[in-house]
Amino acid sequence: MKRLFITLLPLCLLAGCLEVDQHPQWVKGQYAGKKDNRQFATWFHNDRLAWWGTISNRNQHQNEYNRANP
């Protein structure tokens, strides 16, 4: 039992040292990563109104009250 503890202790200590930093890089107060594309810009050719209509329609179909009481 003591031998198992002695072999597992260094492994447990090293496991915490191998964690990769997951915070974004900041250069001069600005985010240095790439900008994310907006959904309406990529799927709806920058038509925000069509995107909003699609989202609203999807949300209405997920409403259980509207589905149960026609």
Briefly say what this structure is.
By secondary structure, the protein is mainly α. The chain has helices at about 1-15, 40-45, 50-60, 65-70, and strands at about 25, 30.
Structure characterization notes:
With 70 residues, this protein is mainly α. The protein is 57% helix and 6% strand. It is built from 4 helices and 2 strands. The chain has a two-stranded antiparallel ribbon with strand order 1-2. The longest helix is centred in the first third of the chain and has 16 residues, at 2-17. The mean pLDDT is 79.
Please provide the ordered H/E string of secondary-structure elements: HEEHHH
- Could you give the order of strands across the largest sheet? 1-2
Number of strands: 2
* Helix percent band: 55-70%
What is the residue-mean pLDDT, rounded to a whole number? 79
Question: What is the count of DSSP helices, taking H or I runs of 4+ residues?
Answer: 4
Largest sheet: 2 strands, antiparallel
Give the N-terminus to C-terminus distance in angstroms.
67 Å
Name the overall outline. Answer: elongated
Uncertain ranges: none
Structural class estimated from helices and strands:
mainly alpha
Strand content: 5-15%
Radius of gyration: 25 Å
